[in-house]
């Protein structure tokens, strides 16, 4: 493609992803060391994950189970048998100077994931997903702080051997927004499967390939691209992305950068670029590395694994997309409310508990708006409420049974529960929020106003006598127990307010 | 250290209590990890490496009450047929002074031949137990791939190699095999050998009715004196009731090429970790880490190791992978198939272990190709994952000659029974 012949309007962005997901298993993929993050360097290590001479890998079935769950969730083919290969390259964080990974027989192939972007549904093809081991991590000290400029570099092998799933998509994305939607959906799915901990540092690492190609190279349905056109266009690989928000920003930057280059008649270099999160830009990695030859060959220390039986044996829970649809149908929720309530499995499970006991609408207001809203305000996650969800249920019960007002429940009890850790009954007791006769009179006042719009209109147009009619209504509702003078004042306050 | 330079490290490691090997001394090849005792693989690269853990076989020795007397000399990382590529100097052959003890487990075979240990452990990737057993006039067993745990054995060609015993008699070797055999949760390639796993019991010397297949290809080009000694041993077995017939293994013509391509490819990857960061000399180099790795490897490895790493890297490279590595795998499958067929017509197969008697010290070091061809009779067995034993068959011109018997997978008992008729 020559830059001169192309106008900006004719350009289409094409993006493909390689997503590395740390699987949440108790132990590493090839040894019994803990995967629990720790501050002490080189604490969770043994001869196997240190790659000591003579040590041998033994496959952790928990990692395979997680991979099979992911395969089922993305509707991938899981083969009869899966094998491991060695990927040979030298890097100081790699204990053996090769990585045990999968090559031509990955555990998952030909999957897909449906996403929605501004109401449009799209299916993203997932070419493959395979298991591999995470390398260690490097800490560059002194000097320029980079791998080639630091005074010295420390190696921490705690991370080495953490199970990773590498998920490779087709070049199916046409915008950074689609990438963000995909990654958010993927994260949700992984959390639902219980194989992923988003809170863990480095649990999601994304490499993205982005090319700009002329629009005419794309067929009518906007999904199929001419492979030659993609081959002809130079692409950049953007590394060091660690979240769906980061992906969106990095790729939006990169898209603009490439389009600007083309518009100005400059060539786009085929290169690897590094996403600098703090500066919000991508930077060219120091040297243009030649095409790497990883000399893949089979890992003889791990016999081929028969996985055909696993697919049937391993169950996966209802996934977010299906649950969202069911929430809309079963509980009559809006799409927005259903989305909020299915954003994590814990939230959705909790909603279903509450909706089972009380009115689904009330439950939705309480879980989606009040609880998540207050948690969000405090930068807290639902996971931090573990063990206290019963208290939230009790609070909803107090509201449902009219023991306290919704306003008090939300503004006083819930906030105090989150801030001070007290239980709802304690707070109601302490703050004296239980409904009294006064509340009853106040409620009758509100009802009388609601039910008699004619009298309200007369009052508002200057007929002061109309107030007497309303006082009568309130007296009736309260069985005559209220003081007419007080009622008169309450009515005037409500009508003026 | 004795004059023969048998041990790299002489160090006594006492076993526990009174197991089956109580009172037995064992020499251990220096590529088998011993906790707290340096394990050099005959390389300068690991001159100071002290493993923090025991190989599974070493734990088994300790539990059996054996006393380890030292770590034996070997070709660097197992790459050699003479023990002369060791960074710690050559070992003399106690059974034929002035000659090499064979390799790569030359120190272990020599330790048994010289009486420095009752029995010994070696490892066999392409003949590294059987060759020195033959050259030193002792018994050596290369077990079926998967019978003995490799956990703690520093890898050279990990799809090919096994740890196995040396002894003066087949029965003693079988007793040691009893201690080290068995599946290990730390080695996923170990397999349950089935019910018949009492090896020492099998050393009855009873060969009545045994059918021996002699692959004609494994006699071609062999030294005349070696062939003569071999047939004398077969005649001896015939006298005791065995019968023999000739069989053919057409694929073995390609076995040496296939073996070296596979072993070197695996070695190029297995030895990649020795980059100067945690082993060997490092630091103080100018340039980036990539250059530092190169310098450390250039300094730390000997010529034969470098040769094999370079050739293996080449064989796995894009554009050559199919021509070499993949073709070698195809040849390997063919060799397996040939052995299966030959063993369907015979109980065991027999050949000279080595086609030549022991070289004189220094004779062969300059010609790697001649060395590689000397492995013609042993490497096919590793390609086929089968068990084999080398027993002393006699002498030619005063030099030891070994007879190799090859059995079906997990047919160690059969081999031990047959070989025990000779030693």
UniProtKB/TrEMBL annotation, chain A:
GO terms for biological process: glutaminyl-tRNAGln biosynthesis via transamidation; translation. Keywords: ATP-binding, Ligase, Nucleotide-binding, Protein biosynthesis, Transferase. It catalyses: L-aspartyl-tRNA(Asn) + L-glutamine + ATP + H2O = L-asparaginyl-tRNA(Asn) + L-glutamate + ADP + phosphate + 2 H(+); L-glutamyl-tRNA(Gln) + L-glutamine + ATP + H2O = L-glutaminyl-tRNA(Gln) + L-glutamate + ADP + phosphate + H(+). InterPro entries: Asn/Gln-tRNA_amidoTrfase_suB/E, Asn/Gln-tRNA_Trfase_suB/E_cat, Asn/Gln_amidotransferase, Asn/Gln_tRNA_amidoTrase-B-like, GatB, GatB_C_1, GatB_Yqey_C_2, Gln-tRNA_amidoTrfase_suB_CS. Residues 349-495 form the Asn/Gln amidotransferase domain. Its EC number is 6.3.5.-. GO terms for molecular function: asparaginyl-tRNA synthase (glutamine-hydrolyzing) activity; ATP binding; glutaminyl-tRNA synthase (glutamine-hydrolyzing) activity; transferase activity. It is an enzyme of class 6 (ligase). Allows the formation of correctly charged Asn-tRNA(Asn) or Gln-tRNA(Gln) through the transamidation of misacylated Asp-tRNA(Asn) or Glu-tRNA(Gln) in organisms which lack either or both of asparaginyl-tRNA or glutaminyl-tRNA synthetases. The reaction takes place in the presence of glutamine and ATP through an activated phospho-Asp-tRNA(Asn) or phospho-Glu-tRNA(Gln). Belongs to the GatB/GatE family. GatB subfamily. Heterotrimer of A, B and C subunits. This is Aspartyl/glutamyl-tRNA(Asn/Gln) amidotransferase subunit B. It comes from Natronobacterium haloterrestre.
UniProtKB/TrEMBL annotation, chain B:
One of its GO terms (cellular component) is glutamyl-tRNA(Gln) amidotransferase complex. It catalyses: L-glutamyl-tRNA(Gln) + L-glutamine + ATP + H2O = L-glutaminyl-tRNA(Gln) + L-glutamate + ADP + phosphate + H(+). Pfam families: Amidase. The keyword Nucleotide-binding applies. Residues 12-415 form the Amidase domain. Gene3D superfamilies: Amidase signature (AS) domain (3.90.1300.10). It comes from the Archaea. Its EC number is 6.3.5.7. PROSITE patterns: AMIDASES. One of its GO terms (biological process) is translation. Keywords: ATP-binding, Ligase, Nucleotide-binding, Protein biosynthesis, Transferase. Residues 80-104, 187-206 are annotated as: Disordered. The active site is at residues 29, 104, 128. GO terms for molecular function: ATP binding; glutaminyl-tRNA synthase (glutamine-hydrolyzing) activity; transferase activity. Allows the formation of correctly charged Gln-tRNA(Gln) through the transamidation of misacylated Glu-tRNA(Gln) in organisms which lack glutaminyl-tRNA synthetase. The reaction takes place in the presence of glutamine and ATP through an activated gamma-phospho-Glu-tRNA(Gln). Heterotrimer of A, B and C subunits. HAMAP family: GatA. NCBIfam families: gatA (TIGR00132). Belongs to the amidase family. GatA subfamily. This is Glutamyl-tRNA(Gln) amidotransferase subunit A. It comes from Natronobacterium haloterrestre (Halobiforma haloterrestris). The lineage of its organism: Archaea, Methanobacteriati, Methanobacteriota, Stenosarchaea group, Halobacteria. The gene is gatA.
């Amino acid at each position: 493609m020559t830059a001169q012949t192309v106008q900006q309007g004719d350009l289409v962005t094409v993006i493909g992803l390689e997503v590395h997901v740390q699987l949440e298993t108790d132990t590493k993929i090839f040894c019994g060391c803990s995967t629990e993050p720790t501050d002490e360097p080189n604490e969770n290590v043994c001869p196997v994950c240190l790659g000591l001479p003579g040590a041998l890998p033994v496959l952790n079935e928990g990692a395979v189970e997680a991979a099979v769950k992911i395969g089922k969730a993305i509707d991938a083919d899981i083969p009869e048998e899966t094998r491991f290969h060695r990927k040979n390259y030298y890097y100081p964080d790699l204990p053996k100077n090769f990585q045990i990974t999968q090559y031509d027989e990955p555990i998952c192939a030909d999957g897909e994931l449906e996403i929605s972007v501004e109401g449009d549904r799209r299916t993203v093809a997932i070419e493959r997903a395979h298991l591999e081991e995470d390398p260690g991590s490097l800490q560059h000290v002194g000097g320029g702080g980079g791998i080639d400029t630091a005074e010295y570099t420390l190696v921490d092998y705690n991370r080495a051997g953490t199970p990773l799933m590498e998920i490779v998509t087709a070049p199916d994305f046409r915008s950074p927004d689609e990438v963000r939607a995909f990654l958010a959906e993927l994260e949700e799915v992984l959390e639902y499967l219980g194989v992923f901990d988003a809170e863990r540092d480095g649990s999601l690492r994304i490499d993205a390939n982005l090319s700009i190609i002329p629009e005419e190279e794309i067929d009518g349905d906007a999904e199929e691209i001419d492979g030659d056109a993609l081959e002809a266009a130079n692409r950049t690989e953007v590394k060091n992305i660690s979240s769906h928000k980061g992906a969106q920003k990095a790729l939006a930057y990169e898209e603009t950068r490439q389009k600007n280059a083309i518009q100005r008649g400059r060539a786009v270099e085929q290169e690897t670029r590094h996403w600098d999160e703090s500066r919000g830009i991508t930077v060219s990695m120091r040297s243009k590395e030649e095409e790497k030859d990883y000399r893949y060959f089979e890992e003889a220390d791990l016999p081929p694994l028969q996985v055909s039986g696993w697919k049937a044996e391993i169950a996966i829970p209802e996934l977010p997309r299906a649950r969202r649809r069911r929430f809309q149908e079963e509980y009559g929720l809006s799409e927005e409310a259903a989305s909020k309530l299915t954003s994590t499995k814990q939230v959705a499970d909790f909603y279903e508990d509450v909706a089972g006991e009380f009115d689904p609408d009330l439950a939705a207001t309480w879980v989606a708006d009040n609880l998540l809203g207050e948690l969000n305000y405090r930068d807290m996650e639902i996971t931090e409420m573990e063990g206290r969800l019963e208290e939230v249920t009790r609070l909803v019960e107090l509201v449902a049974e009219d023991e306290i007002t919704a306003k008090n429940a939300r503004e006083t009890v819930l906030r105090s529960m989150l801030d001070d850790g007290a239980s709802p009954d304690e707070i109601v007791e302490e703050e004296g929020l239980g409904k009294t006769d006064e509340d009853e009179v106040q409620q009758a006042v509100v009802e009388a106003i609601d039910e008699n719009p004619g009298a309200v209109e007369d009052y508002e147009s200057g007929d002061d006598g109309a107030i007497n009619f309303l006082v009568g209504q309130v007296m009736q509702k309260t069985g005559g127990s209220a003081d007419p003078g007080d009622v008169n004042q309450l009515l005037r306050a409500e009508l003026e307010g | 250290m004795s004059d023969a330079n048998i041990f790299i490290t002489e160090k006594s490691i006492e076993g526990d209590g009174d197991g089956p090997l109580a009172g037995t001394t064992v020499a251990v090849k220096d590529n088998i990890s011993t906790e707290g005792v340096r394990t050099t693989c005959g390389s300068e690269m690991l001159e100071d490496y002290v493993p923090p853990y025991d190989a599974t076989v070493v734990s088994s020795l300790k539990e059996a009450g054996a006393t380890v007397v030292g770590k034996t000399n070997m070709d660097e990382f197992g790459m050699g047929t003479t023990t002369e590529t060791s960074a710690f100097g050559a070992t003399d052959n106690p059974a034929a002074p002035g000659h090499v003890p064979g390799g790569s487990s030359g120190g272990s075979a020599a330790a048994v031949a010289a009486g420095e240990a009752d029995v010994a452990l070696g490892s066999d990737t392409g003949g590294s137990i059987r060759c020195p057993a033959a050259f030193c006039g002792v018994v050596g067993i290369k077990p079926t791939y998967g019978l003995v745990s490799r956990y703690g054995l520093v890898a050279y060609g990990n799809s090919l190699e096994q740890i196995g015993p040396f002894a003066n008699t087949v029965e003693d070797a079988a007793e040691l095999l009893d201690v080290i055999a068995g599946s290990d949760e730390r080695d996923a390639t170990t397999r349950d050998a089935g019910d018949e796993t009492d090896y020492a019991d099998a050393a009855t010397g009873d060969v009545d009715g045994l059918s021996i297949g002699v692959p004609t290809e494994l006699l071609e080009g062999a030294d005349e004196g070696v062939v003569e000694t071999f047939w004398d041993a077969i005649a001896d077995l015939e006298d005791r009731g065995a019968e023999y017939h000739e069989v053919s293994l057409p694929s073995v013509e390609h076995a040496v090429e296939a073996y070296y391509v596979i072993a070197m490819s695996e070695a190029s990857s297995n030895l990649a970790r020795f980059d100067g960061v945690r082993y060997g000399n490092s630091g103080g180099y100018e340039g980036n880490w990539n250059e530092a790795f190169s310098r450390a490897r250039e300094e730390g490895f000997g010529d034969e190791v470098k040769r094999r790493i370079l050739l293996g890297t080449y064989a796995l490279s894009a554009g050559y992978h199919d021509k070499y590595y993949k073709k070698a795998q195809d040849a390997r499958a063919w060799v397996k198939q040939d052995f299966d067929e030959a063993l369907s017509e015979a109980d065991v197969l027999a050949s000279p272990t080595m086609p030549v008697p022991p070289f004189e010290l220094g004779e062969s070091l300059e010609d790697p190709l001649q060395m590689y061809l000397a492995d013609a009779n042993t490497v096919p067995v590793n390609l086929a994952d089968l068990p084999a034993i080398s027993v002393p068959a006699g002498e030619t011109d005063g030099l030891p000659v070994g007879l190799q018997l090859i059995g079906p997978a997990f047919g160690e008992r059969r081999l031990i029974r047959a070989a025990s008729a000779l030693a």
